[in-house]
Design brief:
- The longest helix is centred in the middle third of the chain and has 19 residues, at about 130-150.
- Helix 1 packs across helix 2 (about 25-35), helix 5 runs parallel beside helix 6 (about 170-180) and helix 7 (about 200-210) runs parallel beside helix 9 (about 240-250).
- The protein is globular.
- The protein is of the alpha/beta class.
- The strands form 3 sheets. It has a 10-stranded mixed β-sheet. Strands 1-2 form a two-stranded parallel sheet. A two-stranded antiparallel ribbon has the order 7-8.
- It is built from 12 helices and 14 strands.
- Helices cover about 35% and strands about 20% of the residues.
- The protein has 2 domains: about 5-60, DNA polymerase, domain 1; about 65-370, TIM Barrel (Alpha-Beta Barrel), CATH 3.20.20.
C-alpha cells in the first residue's frame, strides 16, 4: 500500500526516503514541493532525480481529503466539510482578518469530552484523525486560497487546533502535524502563531510542553469545580487546581508569556458578577505560583440540543470589567461565521457516534434544566 506523504514530518519523510535508498536532502526537496508548493504529482518535482520521480508512485502518494461542501460567510469566513470515510465528515474553517489569516483545524471526528456548550460534543465520538488528515486540512486550504487569490505569498499565518475534537486526546497524530506546520521547509509558522486548545488533559499538556511548546489555550468556562464538572466533564478527572498547576508548568516552556483561558459566556450559568470575582480570586492564587494569563470571553453560539442561551452583551461587558479592574488582560471574542455555523462551538460535521453521547448529553441536559442558574461555590472569596 502506498504511503501518503502528508503523514510524515520531515524526520519521518527522511526515514521513508532512506528506506528507498535516498539521501536526506531528497526528503527536504520532497517536503518543500508538497507543503510550500502544494504539489501532488511527482512528475512536477523537476529538481528530483528522474529515477526517484519514477520510483515514488509505486510506494508513495500525496492524497488530500475529499471536499463535501464549502460555505462562504458574509464576513469572509469559509467553512469546508471534508469526507474522512466510513460516514464521518469533519469541518475546517478559515477566518480572514486585515492582519492575519487563521485556519481552525479539526483533530478528531467528533469529540469524547462532551462539553455541554459545544455542538461537536453532542454528536459524540467516532475516531481520531491521522496526521495526514490533520495536515491535509492546512495543505488544501493554503494552496486552494493561494490559487483563488492569485498569490504565491502565504495566506494562512495562524493555525488554531480548535476545530472538532480534543487535540491532546490524539497526541501521537497531533505532534507530527504540529512539526510540519512549524518546519521552515514546510509552512514555517512560528510557535506563537500555532495554538493548541485543550479542555485540560493534564498529562498531555506536560508532554506538549516538553516535545513541542506552541501557544496554549485552555477551555476553563467556570471558576470552581462544581460548575466546571457540569460544563466540562473532564474536570472530574483533572480538577481546576491540578489544571492550573499544569498551566504554570507549561508556561515555563511556552512561546508566549501567558496562557489564554477560554470562557464561554452562558446566560445565568457562569456569567454572574460572583463568578467573575471567583475567577479573580482563583487567578490571584495561582499567580503567586507563577501563572500569568489572559481571558478570552466567548459569546455562546446557541444550538438546539444545548438547552443554553448566550449571555446578554451588557452582562458580558460587566463581567469583563471585573476582570480588567483586577488587572487581568481580557478580550471579548468577535463572533465570525455564525451565519454558516462556523463560529466557536458550532462545528459539528457528521460523525458515526461510537460513544452513546447523544443519549448521555440529553440526560445531562434534563438534569441541568432542573437546574443550575447561578452556582456559587462555598468557601471562595467573592
Amino acid at each position: 500500500m502506498a504511503a501518503n506523504l502528508l503523514h510524515f514530518d520531515l524526520e519521518g519523510l527522511a526515514a521513508f526516503c532512506e528506506q528507498l535508498g535516498e539521501k536526506r536532502f531528497r526528503a527536504t526537496q520532497l517536503f518543500r514541493w508538497i507543503h510550500q508548493k502544494g504539489a501532488s504529482d511527482f512528475s512536477q518535482m523537476t529538481d528530483l532525480a528522474k529515477s526517484l520521480r519514477e520510483k515514488l508512485p509505486a510506494s508513495a502518494c500525496i492524497e488530500g481529503l475529499n471536499v463535501v461542501s464549502r460555505q462562504n460567510s458574509a464576513d469572509g469566513t469559509i467553512k469546508w466539510l471534508f469526507d474522512v470515510g466510513v460516514g464521518d465528515v469533519i469541518e475546517t474553517v478559515f477566518i480572514p482578518e486585515s492582519d492575519r489569516g487563521t485556519l481552525c483545524i479539526s483533530s478528531q471526528a467528533g469529540c469524547a469530552v462532551g462539553c455541554r456548550f459545544c455542538s461537536t460534543g453532542h454528536q459524540g465520538f467516532s475516531r481520531n484523525l491521522t496526521t495526514a488528515e490533520i495536515v491535509a486540512q492546512l495543505w488544501f486550504a493554503e494552496h486552494t486560497l493561494r490559487k483563488e487569490l492569485k498569490t504565491s505569498d502565504r495566506v494562512i499565518s495562524n493555525v488554531v487546533m480548535m476545530g472538532m475534537g480534543e487535540p491532546l486526546q490524539n497526541y501521537s497524530q497531533l505532534l507530527p502535524a504540529l512539526r510540519v506546520m512549524l518546519d521552515d521547509h514546510g509552512y514555517g509558522l512560528s510557535r506563537r502563531r500555532v495554538t493548541v486548545s485543550t479542555s485540560g488533559v493534564v498529562p498531555m499538556m506536560d508532554r506538549l510542553g516538553q516535545d513541542c511548546p506552541v501557544a496554549l489555550a485552555v477551555s476553563l468556562h467556570a471558576p470552581h469545580d462544581v460548575l466546571r464538572s457540569d460544563l466540562v466533564p473532564l474536570n472530574k478527572k483533572y480538577p481546576i487546581d491540578e489544571l492550573l498547576q499544569a498551566c504554570a508548568r507549561y508556561q515555563t516552556a511556552a512561546p508566549r508569556d501567558f496562557i489564554t483561558f477560554e470562557y464561554c459566556m452562558l446566560d445565568g450559568v457562569n456569567d454572574q458578577p460572583e463568578h467573575a470575582r471567583q475567577l479573580v480570586a482563583l487567578m490571584q492564587k495561582h499567580a503567586s505560583l507563577g501563572l500569568s494569563c489572559k481571558f478570552n470571553l466567548i459569546p455562546f453560539n446557541p444550538f438546539p440540543a444545548s438547552g443554553l442561551k448566550c449571555s446578554k452583551p451588557p452582562v458580558v461587558m460587566a463581567f469583563s470589567k471585573i476582570l480588567l479592574d483586577a488587572g487581568i488582560v481580557t478580550t471579548v471574542r468577535k463572533t465570525r461565521g455564525d451565519d454558516i455555523d462556523a463560529a466557536c462551538g458550532q462545528l459539528a460535521g457528521d460523525v458515526q457516534d461510537r460513544t452513546g453521547a447523544k443519549q448521555r448529553m440529553a440526560s445531562q441536559r434534563q438534569g441541568m434544566l432542573g437546574g443550575i442558574k447561578v452556582v456559587v461555590a462555598e468557601g471562595l472569596s467573592v
